Please model this.
Amino acid sequence: FYRDRPLARIAARKKFLVSRIAEVCMLAASALLYHRWHTLDLDALARLAGSCKFVPVSVDLAAALIALAVLLKSAQLPVHGWLLEVMEAPTSVSALLHAGIVNLGGYVLIRLAPLITTSPPAQAILVIVGSTTAVLAGLTTMTCPSIKTRLAWSTCSQMGLMAAECGLGLYALALLHLLAHALYKAHAFLSSGEAVRESQARRMPPSRAGREARHREAPAADRAPLMLLVVVGSEDLWYHVLRVPTISGVAAVICAFGIATLLWESDSNAALYLRNLGAAVLAVQLYLGWHAAILSGLGVASVRPLQPLAEWTGLCFLLLYLAQWGAGHRANSASIRRLFTWAAAGYFLDEPLTRLVTRRPPRHGARAVHPRTTHRLARQEGEAA
Model:
C-alpha cells in the first residue's frame, strides 16, 4: 500500500530485512534437525525430542535458532520498528497484521513445545528478550498520543509476554494469551475510529464528588499482594473441588500484577471498590477456567519453569507494576519523568536499523537521535526521489 510514501518504503525495507534473517534462522534449524533425525515431521520431532535423555548440541542450536526466528518475526526489541511503521497501511490491514500474522510465532513455539523445552538456551533467549520487551514496550505504550501507535507498542509488549510464557514452559497460558490478544486487537483496530469521541468524553469535567474522590485517592501499591492472595486461594479452591491442575508460581504472579490495576483508583469509594474487586475476582476465575479448558481440551501441557528464568520474569513484571504505579501516583517525580521521556522516544533502539535501511550510516561518534529522525530521513528520501 502507498508505495509513493517514503515512510511506507522504510517500513517495507525493515520488514523485508528482518523477515529474511528470520527465515535463514528457520532454514538453518531445519537443516540441523534433519541432519540429526532425518525427518521434519512435527509430530516425529516432538516425539524424538521428548525421548532424548541427553540433548545433542545440534538440537540445542536448532531450538535456539527457532527461538531467535520467532523473536524476529514477533517484532521484539530492538528489531521492532517495522511493526510501528506499518501503521502507514489501512486500519483493516493493521487489524489483520496485529490480530493474526504477528501471532504466528507463538503458534510455532507451542507446536514445537517438546523441542523448546529440551533446550535451556532457547528458553533463556525467549524469557530474557521477551520479558524485557514486554516491560519496555509496555512503558512506551503509556506515552503514545496516537491510538494506532499505542496499539502497535501494545502488540510488541504482548508478543514479548507470549515469548516469555513459552520460554517458561507455560504453553497453556501462552495459547490462551494468543487467542485473547487476537480478539482484542482485531476489535481495537477496527473500532479505532471511535477514539475521538471517547477522548472527548474523557475530557469532560468530573463532578464535584469525583474531584473530591480523586483528591482523596490513596496510594495503591499494596493491591498486588491482595490479588496474589485471591489468585492463590482461587487456584487452591479449583484444585480441591474440581481437581484442576494448579498453575505455576510465576503465572500466578503475572496474573496478580495484571489484575491488581483494577483496584488502583477505587480506595475512596466503597461501592466502586467492591465492584472492581468483584470484577477482579471474576477475571481470576475466568482465567483459571480457560486455563483448565485448554489443558484438558486441546492437550497443550505446561512444564515446570526453570527457577532463574522464573525469578527474572517476576522481577521484570514487578518493575513494570511499580513504574505504572509511579506514573499514576508520582507523575511529577524527576525519575519518573526522566524514565517516560526515554520511553516516549522508544529508548532510541530503532535508530540503527532505520539508518541501515535508509543507507545513511551515522558519523563516527554521533550521538543517539530522536525517533523523529525516521520521518526526517523519509522526507529527505522523498525529496531526492
About this structure: Residues 220-305 form one domain.
